[in-house]
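hi support,

uploading two proteins for the ticket. first:
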Amino acid sequence: MEFDAVVLAGGGSTRFGGVDKAMLVLDGVSLLDRVLTATAGAASTVVVGPVRTTYREVNWTVEDPPSGGPVAGLAAGLQHGVAPVVVVLSCDLPWITEADVATLVEGLDERDGYGLRDTDGREQQLAAAYRRTALAAAIEQVGDPRDKSVRRTLAGLDLDWTEPTRAGDDVDTWSDLDD
């Protein structure tokens, strides 16, 4: 099934002391490039955040105004691409692979979205495949998307989740980078 990818990479990385988390390198590859490798099969890929050097060409956008949070980033990212399925990933998922992305897309069935759980069992809304129409409607319903909660914005969607997996583990602190 054809899908577009929206990669959120505009956060402030405050828990990293302002270091650009997207450009942190793990085993010789930046976190952003790891996610872009996992989404290589997308019909189109847009990264929401400042333009950086990446291993492959992608489209770039930022929310308006910048620093509006992940829901505003999703709204900006949805302006790109036309595929009926959108894989949404934060840039801090270093263990996600192309096979994991395929699992998300294939797992949609008739649902609005299908996402990863991290190894602790937490549902990762920013590591999921969504039906474009359902995601756009949820964002439109909140009005101004700046500083809105992702969980509350997507609460009305019919979502299902994988079993806990390392692919859903995001990097929020330095210790999260330990294998």
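and the second one:
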Amino acid sequence: MVMCAGAIALGFLFFGTAALLGYTDLLQRAPALSVLVIAISLSLPMAVWMRFRGMAWRPTLEMSGSTMVFGLLLIVAYWTDLVARDSLVEVQTSAACPLMLAVMLLRPRLYAGHAHGGGRPATRDGPFPRGFARSNRLVANPVIRRFAGSIGPLTLVQHRGRKTGRTYATPVMSFTTHGGLVVGVMYGKRSDWVRNVLAGGAVEVKRRGRTDRYQSARLLGQGEGLHLLPSMLRGPFRLLRVRHFVYLTDLAA
């Protein structure tokens, strides 16, 4: 999420400034430069966030370097006519998350069991500690909410506080399955959004530019949840030790 938010912010800053200076449609006029800028925009926020969270330099460079190396390879592929100009950005952005997952698979113990280089253990029922959730809520979520629900599996779940009655919007990663949506619970089943959704039942979800209302929400265990995921994602979620999933069904007409 930090990678996506940072890339969009830095992308708007660079390409917006270029447009003000008269360099409009830079993606068409300078495709190689644009790919390089996007690669930096994807890598830099992620590296800064990982270091801020206390990750060691080696995994930080592995994670951020994956998008940089892929961007450079994509430029070479464009120069050698292996990738068309109009497909460059689509290929680059589509590969960003799979590249991150691939790097995680190299160090499953680090990303599944520890939040920091110092080795603090993960929460009992989620792969990441509650401190991550609090940091995201204050720093990353306000930015991500601006485009969540419009890009790929990045989804905006609107739910009502079980105690306050206020309406909240939480960005999550969701996947379609068997007439519903399945969401991996990254910070444990005691996360506020999880408890609110389970208590309220009906929930509104914005995904890929469309807002739908689901009438039922259930908490599933690891086995049931993994079975509902697309087959290519089951391995990464298993390695991350995601133990609970929220299953949204009964789509309202």
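thanks. also noticed: Residues 114-123 have pLDDT under 50 and may be disordered.
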